[in-house]
């Protein structure tokens, strides 16, 4: 058992790599699709919707097969790891786009009006006000998607990537104790998920602190109207 | 607080009938569905003039400010700001619908303070005041910081520069919102019921700040308020609205002491009894 630990850890490392890279791609696509989807012009929103609806409606595994086995027939041979990351990123990014769109649309209209009153353009409004406020609302559902992506990576062995599940299946088929090898698989996936959730919770705490939420931010009562400004200054 | 009577030195004559109006509404109509909020409204405001809009809820006062700030679009008529229309612009000798660039150029001379403050919760007080000058006006961060300090001094909150909006009372938040609007150096300041959301004991502080700004600057002010003594103190002119029309207008002394219209009398009586 101890002899094969490096193999397991290697599998864990591959799973972590796919999860992190897939999540980075999914996050970028989520923002692209979500911002397109919350645009004012209908045709821009339509671009976001086409991506979201297509990749939400396609099984990640089928997409992975298509990228790895079918694409070579039209002259594109993808590295299996890259195909896995691309399939998972495209799939989860479609769900993430809806999270971003929902969170952006949930930023109060009064905040948008304040940016107009300060004459901010679209990019300034989004970068300085809307996205920083929407980010805190996005994080909990994004955390769920991250875990889904990590668990969804358990099928990448089917396109020859030696991730954790791939290693476990190998160990099992070469005589490993069923209870032990699959028990280890459960344990490792659980630990990876916990590590990811810890990271997400840290980001949530930071995002909430930036919005002035949490124990450190309590409004001090104003000492009557005494400190009212202007007096001769 | 400077004690001079603002009526002693009006920055401009009332704009009625004059051609040098900084803001001009021409036959402006605003509807929400079947509800006509502004009914072919005409009025002018001169540069430096301080005009208070009074009237019952739903009479269209706030809509006027929102139209000027381009938060709403008129259904008819034309609104002019310093000679530029909010609905159209000139391109190649032709009048075409105003685009965002044109609106941003017109908007650059207008600032607004909202009833609910609308400070950005993701920023400290300092950033609330400096972000727009830095990113919109292209002012350096050092200059914006210095100006933020001066403005916070003006509104009596210099020590709160690194506080978070959630750590401030409503009155303090509103004073920061005033500083934020002034940081953009607007020529026109729109004040939309800026004390209505405040606890009564915090109202005086905000009004003191506005009185100070009114008496020490030549900024044009359009103010929607139910604070009649404030309106009397700072305005050059008061407009009484009802059902999307101006019922009566005149200098505050006349409107508050000798209103000509029965509607104005009944409104003032109701407000002052409140």
Tally of separate helices of chain A: 8
Runs of chain A in which pLDDT lies below 50 for 5 or more consecutive residues are 223-233
Shape of chain A: flat
Q: What spatial form of chain B do the alpha-carbon principal axes imply? A: globular
> Any idea how many domains of chain A?
1
Strand order of the largest sheet of chain B: 8-9-10-3-11-12
Oligomerization state? heterodimer
Strand element count of chain B:
12
> Which CATH class of chain A?
Mainly Alpha
Subcellular location (chain A): Cell membrane
Family (chain A): Belongs to the binding-protein-dependent transport system permease family.
Keywords (chain A): Amino-acid transport, Cell membrane, Membrane, Transmembrane, Transmembrane helix, Transport
Pfam families (chain A): BPD_transp_1
Quickly describe the structure.
Chain A is mainly α. Chain A has helices at residues 5-37, 42-56, 60-70, 80-106, 109-117, 122-152, 164-173, 178-210.
What does this structure look like?
- The complex is a heterodimer of chains A (233) and B (274).
- Chain A has one domain: MetI-like (MetI-like fold, Orthogonal Bundle).
- In chain A, 73% of the residues lie in helices and 0% in strands.
- Chain A has helices at 5-37, 42-56, 60-70, 80-106, 109-117, 122-152, 164-173, 178-210.
- Mean pLDDT of chain A is 90; it is low at 223-233.
- Chain B has a domain at 119-185.
- Chain B has helices spanning 61-68, 100-107, 125-137, 141-154, 170-183, 200-216, 228-234, 252-257, 262-273; strands spanning 21-32, 35-46, 50-54, 76-81, 84-85, 88-91, 94-97, 110-113, 188-192, 220-224, 237-242, 245-250.
- In chain B, β9, α6 and β10 form a beta-alpha-beta unit.
- The two termini of chain B are 28 Å apart.
- Chains A and B meet through α5 and α6 of A and α2, β8, α3, α5 and α6 of B.
């Amino acid at each position: 058992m101890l002899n094969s630990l490096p193999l397991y850890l290697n599998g864990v490392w591959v799973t972590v790599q796919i999860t992190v890279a897939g999540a980075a791609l999914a996050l970028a696509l989520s923002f692209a699709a979500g911002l397109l989807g919350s645009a004012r012009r209908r045709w821009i929103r339509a671009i976001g919707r086409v991506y979201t609806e297509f990749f939400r409606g396609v099984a990640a595994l089928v997409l992975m097969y298509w990228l790895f086995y079918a694409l070579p027939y039209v002259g594109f041979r993808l590295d299996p790891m890259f195909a896995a990351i691309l399939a998972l990123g495209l799939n989860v990014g479609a769900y993430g786009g809806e999270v971003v769109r929902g969170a952006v649309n949930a930023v109060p209209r009064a905040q948008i009006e304040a940016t107009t009153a300060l004459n901010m353009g679209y990019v300034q409004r989004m970068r300085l006000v809307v996205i920083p406020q929407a980010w805190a609302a996005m994080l909990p559902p994004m955390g769920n998607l991250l875990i889904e992506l990590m668990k969804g990576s358990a099928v990448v062995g089917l396109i020859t990537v030696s991730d954790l599940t791939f290693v476990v299946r190998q160990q099992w088929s070469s005589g490993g104790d069923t209870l032990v090898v699959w028990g280890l698989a459960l344990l490792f996936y659980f630990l990876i998920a916990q590590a990811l959730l810890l990271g997400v919770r840290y980001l949530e705490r930071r995002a909430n602190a930036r919005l002035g939420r949490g124990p450190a931010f309590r409004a001090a009562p104003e000492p009557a109207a005494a400190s009212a400004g202007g007096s001769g200054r | 607080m400077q004690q001079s009577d603002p009526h002693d030195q009006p920055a401009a004559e009332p704009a009625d009938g004059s051609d040098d109006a900084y803001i001009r509404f021409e036959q402006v109509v605003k509807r929400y569905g079947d509800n006509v909020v502004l009914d072919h409204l005409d009025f002018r405001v001169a540069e430096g003039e301080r005009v208070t809009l009074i009237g019952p809820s739903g009479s269209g006062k706030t809509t006027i400010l929102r139209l000027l700030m381009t938060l709403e679009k008129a259904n008819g008529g034309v609104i002019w700001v310093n000679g530029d229309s909010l609905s159209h612009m000139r391109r190649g000798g032709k009048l075409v619908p105003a685009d965002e660039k044109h609106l941003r150029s017109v908007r650059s001379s207008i600032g607004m303070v909202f009833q609910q403050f609308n400070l950005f919760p993701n920023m400290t007080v300092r950033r609330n005041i400096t972000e727009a000058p830095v990113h919109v006006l292209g002012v350096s961060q050092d200059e914006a910081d210095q100006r933020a300090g001066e403005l916070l001094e003006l509104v009596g909150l210099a020590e709160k520069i690194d506080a978070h909006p959630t750590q401030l009372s409503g009155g303090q938040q509103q004073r920061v919102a005033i500083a934020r609007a002034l940081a953009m150096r607007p020529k026109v300041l729109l004040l939309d019921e800026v004390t209505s959301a405040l606890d009564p004991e915090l109202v005086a502080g905000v009004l003191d700040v506005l009185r100070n700004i009114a008496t020490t600057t030549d900024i044009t002010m359009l103010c929607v308020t139910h604070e009649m003594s404030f309106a009397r103190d700072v305005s050059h002119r008061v407009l009484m609205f009802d059902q999307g029309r101006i019922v009566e207008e005149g200098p505050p002394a006349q409107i508050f002491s000798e209103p000509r219209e029965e509607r104005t009398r009944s409104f003032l009586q109701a407000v002052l009894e409140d």
